Every structure is written in structure tokens, then in C-alpha cells.
Amino acid sequence: MQHAMPPQQFALEIHGLCKSFDRLAVDGLELKVRKGEFYALLGPNGAGKTTTLRMVAGLLRPDAGSIRVGGVDALADPVGAKQIMAWISDEPMIYDKLTPREYLEFVAGLWGIAPDVAEARAQELLSWLDLSAQANERCEGFSKGMRQKVALAGALVHEPRVIILDEPLTGLDAGSARQVKSVLRQRVNAGGTIVMTTHILEVAERMADRIGVIAHGKLIAEGTLDELRIAANKGASVGPSQNVTLEDTFLTLVAEQAQAA
Amino acid sequence: MTAAPGTTVWFARHESRLAWRDWLSMITAGRRERLRRVVIAILIFATFMHFVAYWMVGRYADAVVDRSMLVTISGTILLSWLLMVSQAMESMTRAFYSRSDLDLILASPVAASKLFAIRIATIAIGMATMAMPLAAPFINVLIALGGWRWLGAYGLIVAMGATAAALAVGLTVALFRLIGPKRTRLIAQIVAAVIGAAFVIGLQVAAILSYGTISRVAVLQSQAVVAHAPGLDSLVWWPARAAIGDIIPLIGVLALSLALLGLAIVLVSPRFGEYALVAAGTGNFSNSASRRQATFRAASPQGALRRKEWMLLRRDPWLVSQTLMQMLYLIPPAVLLWHSFDDGNGAYALLVPVLVMAAGQLAGGLAWLAISGEDAPDLVATAPVPSSFILRAKVEAVLGVIAVVFTPLLAVLAFASLWHALVAACGIIIATTAATSIQLWFRSQAKRSQFRRRQVSSRVATFAEAFSSIGWAATAAVASASLVLAIAPAILASLVVLGARFMAPRQS
């Protein structure tokens, strides 16, 4: 399904990635995400999505395999890979005793961004995410949505080329979710790459350029929504229909994989 | 036999199961396979403590009861009891402010007051249970050498646990009503620490001002105190008499303490849920707006990390109170320094180990906050900085605070005695490095708000940190008199640190 492309066209390349805990979590995963692509990674609970993304972000060490981020070998040169990457998890980890502005200043310091550049970006991001009014308030009283927006601003303040998001919309209200989606889409339009796991299939359906389905630590299907529909309907008596939702397609693919296993 | 759901017995069984598993997890650091080794280690330690107890109190087993003895026993009981009250207040504050299963219980149709009655009783039992292992070697030795009458000391511990819990419940609820739920959490912690430390510090300050020594025993055994003590038949001595097995005082003290605990349970448990709900409604934040900062400041990644650590520490009064509470114990040496400034005598030698010990303990707490208590671990781990740089920056942040706290004290000491200041400075540097290293080796990710639970995460780290600080304090004390003699304690302290390194889990 993957079109032949020169390696530099890929923002993320994963080969033979393996990770075991008490059981095998990721089993020889192969995955390629193109530059400027919005890629959604779907899968049932325990499929290995978060483990995969945590290995990409440098938060877990793989047992085997290779990861390249923007052409940089993330295992041989983790600092180089981290320089161009950002990670956001479903649980926004920010400092209660810092204000959003101070948080962004700290993140900019970690990524070595010049203060004047970082400040301009911080103001822009706080404005985009509707956080300007709270920019100088400590985060300790913030709602989950506001905290997630602060975390997102932190991820974007150093202008990463690859953004890794693990369930970023979990627990957000409709308004906050729309703001986050809008900012992410703008980042992709500007040439950034986003790799995101989500349980909200409607988000993947609407936002993702390509979707990967992972089960038992392996990529079992990948492609655009139409390509996935075709894959799910292989062997079925009727052909793919535009009325078939991603949920139907996803459940069919996972069920087929379970039967095959 | 199973109790009907929702009854007091059913809740008691539920609580005891949770407490048992919590305790098991605490002593094994969550690894059940360690249980056998832990039990063996406890038995060895208990045997050792019995020898220590024999050496310390063996000669008093058959001593004649006089006012001097009663003053010493009463002072020891009062000191231990105040520490129990302090711990009980901490437990009560946690019970009010920690959500854990309160939402489930308050949302259920059972009478929550029954559970809260059990929880207050559990605090009393917890206080007594906590004191038992510490007191048991001493009581056992006294029983073996002085007869069964000393069994009364165990009864006294039960009474102390009950009264400590009752008083803690009363004080916490009073604070809750007096200053409101928002401030109670912080103030209760401070009051608890002050109660725990005040008696020791008070005795030490009195000893310094009266006798020029830091030993609190000097006051308790002084002629002045014994002369002003009440007669042997006074009710004041009932706790001490209960400890040595006088049956009437023992029954009296036990009955009174259990009645106090019962009263606290009857009065507070029906309203406990209400207090907990109010506490939950306040949150633990000030939501204060910070002064708008003009521009972003330039900083290297390490500089940004150091600045962040200092800012977070400065802005969290609860953490500051928890961490700097250990500084209360610096008051007596500071008084001693002030009192002996012109004397030029050997009093400075007493200061050196206290400073070293305090630095080691403070460094351990701060190192835990900086290294393990990272609230955004993923952010820091995904920053484009080698992990060794991150750890170094955090260690520098800890050392910075230690330098700020101890440099003024060392400077004053240097004016009085350059040699003692030099030894203290070396001791502080070594004890700080050792405590920080131990926290580094035993690091495990946690929230800063779990600071109070840090000692539970690894018993080995907790003991290693304490023994290391004690070892380096002893080394510094001996070194201030003779460098050659200091080699032995220095080797012992080094072995503690090396042992911790050897036992530390492998970091991924």
C-alpha cells in the first residue's frame, strides 16, 4: 500500500519495532508517515498504539527495530530527533504553579529557542488557543481542556516538524476540541507532520490524510478512508460503500485480524 | 463469618484489609517476593535494637521509683506523645483532603459515619502500632530484667495512641472551623510539625541557655526541675506510673484515653463527610495571578530547569513548609552558636554534626522533589537535552538551595571558629552529595503532591538516606576533634552509601 518514495520524504519511519513487557506489546511494527501528513493510528485497547508512540518520542527504549524522525535515527541520536519533535499525551502534564506564559518560557528554554522568538510565538499560540486572558494565571485551577491547550501550546512553541499526539482530545469539551483540531490542521497546512492516536473515530475520519490500524502490536491495515473500506470489504459480497463509516470499517478489520490470529 | 455490608464490622474489615495491603506494599516496596528477605532483615534489626536497648535502659529495670526517675519517664512519654499527636494530625489532614475513595463512599447509600468512625479509630491504632516497634525492644528488655510489671508500658502506648488521635481530631476540626478549609491544610501541617518539634527544641534551647549544652536530658535530670516536681502521689505521674506497671494508674489512663477517643468519634464522625465535602470544594490552589513578566529571559536548557525548580519550590507553601520544617531543628544549634559566641569553648563541636545532619536531610527531601517529583516527566524527557544534563541541572538546583540555607550559618561559625566551620562545610558537602546520590539511584516517577509518601516508595532509600546523614554527622563531629579518629565513622558512612548504590534498582 505504501507508495515508493525517497526516504527524505518520510517524517517518520519505523522498521521491525518490537517491545515486550509481561507480554509482547509491539511486534515487528512497520510504519511510514510522509512529511506534511496527518496520520491517525487506530486500534483496540492494548493494541500497542501508545507504546509505539512512546518509543518514537524517546520515552521508551525498544527491544528491537529502528525509528527515524525527519531522517534522524532516533535511537542513535535521540537529542537530534527530539529537537524536531513534540509529544503530547492524553493526560496534560504541566506545572500547576507556573502560568501558561512561564510554562511556554520554560519549554522554549528546554528547546533552546531565542527568548524574543519564543515570546512572539507564545503570544500567538495563547491567542489562537484562546488562553490570552489566563496567560498570567497559575495553571492550578485550570480545567482539563485548558490544561490540554497549555500543553499543546508548549508542544508548538518550538515549531516541531513532527508532532506525536496520544489521544489529545480525550476529555475535551466540543469548543476546546474544535480549537485544538483547528490548530493541528493549521500546523499540517504549514508543512508539519502529525501522528495521532485516537479513540474518536470521527476525528480520524475527518482530519486524517491516512489512517493506520494496529492490533496485537502489528499494523494490520493502512491507507485513506476509501482504501481502508476496500480492504475491509475484501471477500464481502457487496463492494465498498460511501455509507460505510470508519467505525464499521475499523471493527471489521479488527474482527478479521482476530479471526486470522 | 461474614459481616452484613454497610455495618461497622464490615467497614472495619474493609479498612483493615486496605491497611494490611498498604503496609505490606510499604515494607516490600510493592514486590511480594521480597517479603522473606524483609522479614529476616526486620528480625536482625529487632535483635540489634534489643542490644541497644539493654545498653541504654537495662540498668533502670530495677531502679527505685523516685521523682527524678518519674520526671525522666514523664518527659520521654510527653515527647513521644507529642510526636504521635503530630503524626495523627497529618493523618487527619490527609483523611480530609485526600479524595481517594471518598467520592465512592459519599455517593453510596450507606451511613458514611460508620466508616469515618472506623477511620478515626484506625488513626489511633496506627499511632500505637507505629510506636510499638520503636518502644518494644526497650520494654522487652525492662520486662526481662525488671519483671512483668513493665508490660504496663504496652498499655500506655495504646492509651497514648488513643489520646493522640482524639486530640488530633479535635485540633484539626477546630482549625477547620476557625480558619476555614482552604487554610487548614497548610496550617494543620505546620501546627503538626511545630507540636512534634516544639518540646525537643524547647528542652534543647532551655538546656543551652541554662547549662550550655544541647542535650535535652540535662534539663530533665537537673536539680531545678526535680526540686519543682510534684510529690510522688500526684496524678501528674499517672502516665509514668502506668508505664512501670502500677495497676490503678494504668487502668485510669487507659479508661480516660479510650473515653476521649470515643467522644471524638461520636462528635466528629457524623460530620466527617460534610468536612470532606467542604475541603474538596476549596481545592488546593490559590489561583493567584502572577505579576506579568515583561519579556522572556534567555536561558540554557539547564538554566531553564534550575529556574523552574526554584520557582516551583518557592510557590508551593505546603512543600516549603514540609521541606523547611527540618530547619526547625537548626534553632537549637543557632541558639547555641549565639550563646557560646564569645566563649570560644568546645560548644561549637556540638554544632557541626547538627548542621551536617540537617543538610543531609534537607538535601534528601529537595532531591526527591527535583528528581522524582517531576510533574511533567514526559515534557522533560522529550526535550532535546541528554538525560545526564537534565539530572545535573536538577542536582545543581538542590545544591543551590542548600548553599543559600547553610552559607550564612557557616559564615557566622567561621567567625567563631574557622576550623569547625571548615569541618562543617566539608560535612555538609559530603552529606548533601550522598543524600542527593541516594535519591538519584532510587528515583521513581511521582507527583510532587506525593511528597509525604516519598518515604514509602523505597524503605531502603529512606533508611540509607537517614543512616548516611547520621554517619556523616558523626564523622564531622569526630573530625572536628581528631581527623584520624574520623576515619572509622567515615568508612561506615561510605559503606552505607555504597550499600545503597549496590541495592538500588537498575534505571532504564
Structural features:
heterodimer, A: 261 residues, alpha/beta, 6-stranded mixed sheet, 4-stranded antiparallel sheet, B: 508 residues, mainly alpha, 0% strand, globular
Description:
The complex is a heterodimer of chains A (261) and B (508). Chain A is an alpha/beta fold and 261 residues long. Chain A has nine helices and ten strands. A six-stranded mixed β-sheet of chain A has the order 6-7-8-3-9-10, with helices on both faces. The longest helix of chain A has 16 residues, at 174-189. Chain A is globular. With 508 residues, chain B is mainly alpha-helical. Chain B has helices at 8-28, 35-57, 67-97, 102-107, 112-146, 152-211, 217-220, 223-228, 238-243, 247-282, 301-315, 317-324, 331-339, 347-372, 377-381, 387-416, 418-441, 454-457, 459-479, 487-503. In chain B, helix 6 crosses helix 10 (247-282) and helix 16 packs antiparallel against helix 17. Chain A binds chain B through residues 57-59, 61, 79-80, 82-83, 85-87, 89, 93-99, 101-102, 105-112, 114-116, 118-119, 122, 136-138, 140-141, 151, 154, and chain B through 283-293, 295-301, 303-305, 307-308, 311-312, 315-316, 375-386, 508.
SSE string of chain B, helices as H and strands as E:
HHHHHHHHHHHHHHHHHHHH
Helical content band of chain B? over 70%
Q: What order do the strands of the largest sheet of chain A run in, or round the barrel if closed?
A: 6-7-8-3-9-10
- Major sheet of chain B, described briefly? none
**Count of beta strands of chain B:** 0
Distance between the termini of chain A: 21 Å
**Mean pLDDT over all positions of chain A:** 85
Strand content of chain B: under 5%
Strand content of chain A: 15-25%
Order of helices and strands of chain A: EEEHEEHEHHHEHEHEEHH
